[in-house]
Amino acid sequence: MNPYLPEKATIAEIREETSGARPIKTFKVVLHNGHAFNQKPGQCAMVGILRVGESMISIASSPTQREYLEFSIMKLGKVTSALHACEAGETITLRGPYGNGFPIAAWKGKNIVTIGGGIGQAPLRPIVQYILDNRDDFEQFDIIYGARSVNDLCYKSELFELEKRNDLKVHLSIDTADPDWKRFVGFVPNNVLRIKPSPENTIAITCGPPIMIKYVIHNLLELGFSEQQIFTTLENRMKCGIGKCGRCNVGNFYVCKDGPVFNYATLKNLPEFD
Amino acid sequence: MDTVILKKENLIGFLKSLNAARLIAPAAKKGTTSFEVIDDLSSVTLDLNDYMASPKKAVFPQTETLFAFKKQNGNLTIAPADRAQATVVFGIRPCDARSFQILDSLFRGDFNDPYYTNRREQTLLIGLACKEPTNRCFCPSLGGSPSSAEGLDMLVTDIGDAYCINVLTDRARSALSQSAPLLAEATKEQRAQKEQADKESLAKIRRHVDLQGMHEKLPRIFEHEIWMELANKCLGCGICTYYCPTCHCFDIQDEGDTSEGRRIRVWDACMFEEFTRHASGVNPRPSRAERLRNRVMHKFTYYPLNLGTIACVGCGRCIELCPVNEDIIEILEKVKAVHE
Question: What is the ipTM of this complex?
Fold first, then answer.
């Protein structure tokens, strides 16, 4: 097994999630060799274009979906800009899955609340799909998600559909008022305080901009969540994906292989996390 | 026949008898000695005693191809690089041989790195005990010694009029299958000469650092201002990492055009600002203080925590080569002196 050799994959479909200076597109990708990726929710893959490079991207589709993988990618650097210039039908490369993923099997029988901001919903999306596919395994399920504006919300139509279901609650927000927006206006951490998820038998998973994560965790602790009940994900620059190239460490943990998922009880003791 | 004697005048014949597809040994180059792929056996020299660059490149080249890619008629092919040649590294220092073991723990680790592992399996290590340790050497502080045989297949010791060779592994025994006519069983006296040489070289080590409690202390002073102070004169040039026999950080880059090219791995350095800079511009280690701290902690805390060994062999090259005289021993002493 050569972990540096990527597999070829075809972009089957590209969906525009958001526009603006840092647009986000979701790429639906099918591996050429027909292998299942066998990823866990929260795991990532090195998505690449030969001659340009690779970027570590969280897998935004559910492990229960075996025909394809989805990646929601913000246009930011060299590789992600090249991906944004791609069209459906083009060949890209994948390596993975990498990272520890969420310990979702251990959450059976619990209430789950996911708290996302902006593109931070991408790694949470497999949890949503996994729970819906195994709905009886979990108790109450809340999705809290927000972005700066309506235009910055990812997976809009999907979330609007989920809002109609009665086996979960979706709490969407935008940061600044919009005449057409009838839901909450304010920052995600404030929405958490407004909704007040009960810490009783609950796991909270938060993902988004670092500043949002910081205040979400602060507010969850205030609501009575223990450190062990809170999970989040980290990201850092990566090259190898397998803990060898030396750049993505936070303390002695490599985010690529020991993360990206960290329990807050572990995370708060890491020297470089504040 | 585990301790044998080679006459000095038979060195070239001995190297020839090893029949290595590729021989890497110290050769004089630009006024110093460096490990080179040897074409002409007479260029091998063991007289100069200061090998500035370790032979790390024998198992972890500064630049290597991971795979080549080619797009033809809409069909993309990805072909991994060729497997390694059988290689003999002759004249490796005991500290550098230990560094290979430290690199092994990382590259073999939980994800096997096939490029490194393949080269390592193809490489026979013949060490040369240090006769004249330099004034920067501190290998005994890291558990080594100028005559350590750890990680070697053979250890060669200069005993004056001849070389005493300790044959340490089965691989070494089979490599010597053609060498017997040049070798003689060591006499009791010659063995005693080797022991004496070992003692003398060890006594020449001038620098020491006590690392007791170091890996536990470093995280406790993570936020201390000492890192600013220590990094004040650092230029961030990265030479300490390029010459370090245990540094393993690398970058992956693509070369070529859209129809043909290769993906390469090149050495990189944690002392560079771009090393950790995100595409967004955010950098978790934005200044030299964070980068110097990470380098020291990687070697003396994170590596021990993750892989059970300190990632330093006490070769002192970083001390010798730093253009502004950063000194890892002084850094460690200052860390020890911080009051908590």
Answer: 0.91
